[in-house]
Amino acid sequence: MSRQKLRILEYHSISTNGFVDQITIRKEDLIAQFDYLKKNNFTTLWLSEVDEFISKQKPLPPRSVVLTFDDGFLDNYTILYPLLKQYDFKAVCFVVLGRIGQKIDWSGKFINENENMVLMNKEQLVEIGSHIELGYHSFKHDNYALLSLEKIEEDLQLCQEVIAREQLNIFPALAYTYGGYYRKNSGYQSDFFKLLKKYGIRYGLRIGNRINILPFKNNYEVQRIDIRGFDSLAVFKLKVWLGRKKFF
What we know:
Elements: E1 4-11, E2 13-15, E3 24-26, H1 27-39, E4 43-44, H2 47-55, E5 64-71, H3 75-87, E6 91-95, H4 122-127, E7 132-136, H5 149-166, E8 170-175, H6 189-198, E9 203-208, E10 212-214, E11 222-226, H7 233-242
């Protein structure tokens, strides 16, 4: 398979009340970004489709992009899902599997206190399946870089128990919470990747802010481009075409 570019964009929450921060984008700004992608003939794909193109050694559609949303916020159902239907787009939502249908209980600098930060419930996760593919985002939003391998294995076990019990259709891709995973200098990266493979995880997504070149150099270090809520449309365009540049 010849070298191809794949852009994977990273989002989280969407607001309708004007609130914006690093992980929360205003609905009107997301619409402007979707307009740009549509007018410039980008093709949105699920990761399962990317996986199929790779396995069959077929070229990706021109200007392929994967839209990813972390955590599984309720606004991904109330706002994102209707927009995807309107634009005929697809997206991937990485779900905190131990917090389905609950209000978030993790603290952080970028938390929108102005809206009800609730995660989608099972029925909503099933309903969005026509346009949103689901993936792993840990059991309770822990940073894997701060956990032992034993604790990470427990986390993956708990994730799979939820998937089986709730009969959810989850593609085996994991977005690292906080972008955290065992780096090469940890001395345990190989063991970490073996653990992911043991539990059937096919892809691990970091941040990295680079455009991926297929075939991936390492399936467990797939890069995403962080789209921040306060990015202007001009910055969004630069990120889509170039990835991260030093002036970001």
